[in-house]
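FAQ: What does the model actually see?

It sees only this:
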Amino acid sequence: MRAAARAYYQLDRAERAIALRARLWMQGFLSSALVPRERALVAIDAYDVAPGALSRELFDWERAWFARRLPPPPAAVFVAAAGDGREAVELRARGYRVDALEPARRLADRCRRRLGAGSEVHVSRLETFDAARARGPYDAVLIGWGGLSHVLDRTDREAALRTCAALAPAGPILASFFVRGAHNPGAASRAHRLGNAAGRAVARLRGVDAGEDAGGTWFAGWYGFAHAFSPDELGALAAAIGRRFAWDVAPGDAPDAGPRRGVFLPPRDVE
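And it is asked to produce this:
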């Protein structure tokens, strides 16, 4: 029986090693074959076909963060990258007026059913959404779990935040995101290099230039590509929309259940 158990664990380890190499090959391939805006669509596709129920209750840090940074109910909050409504449903239950936006149609439909009457749920990417379509202005915008990291192109990130500022011109923009340093450990692996080579060949056939990744993106099968921010990037994004960025959990802080997070302060709080 011990021999059978040992064989099982050896097989499991081999399976996980193969899966890791496949993921690294695919990351290298798609990074070189697709331009950043196409990579962003991979994330939408990944969430759209995700199996099972994606929702879970809010973490304690999220409840504390919302209580500290959001205006009190019955304020109006716009939840972007809402997924199937994890944050939006909780805020609605707290007495907020909530509208939402989600680019993955399957998740947007689920979010709409869960929120019910009285809430609008738009199907769109944040960077291309026309704020005039929403029934704002809102008192705050919340970009759902890690949603800002799925906007991979720098110009698109600025456009996304300008949309948020138009939705809540006098309110805070709360965002969670991934940061540089802790991810993408296999980018220099042989599997990644082989994927890169195959992707560059496909890019040449397509007549596109995917550009060079400076280490700020990584790939996972269940959520596609994500951008990892540096502190300077967040400050520059805030300045571009006339705001100031304030950390709530910064790089180097003690790790917890969630990604790093902060708030793009409303104009009245910018010195």
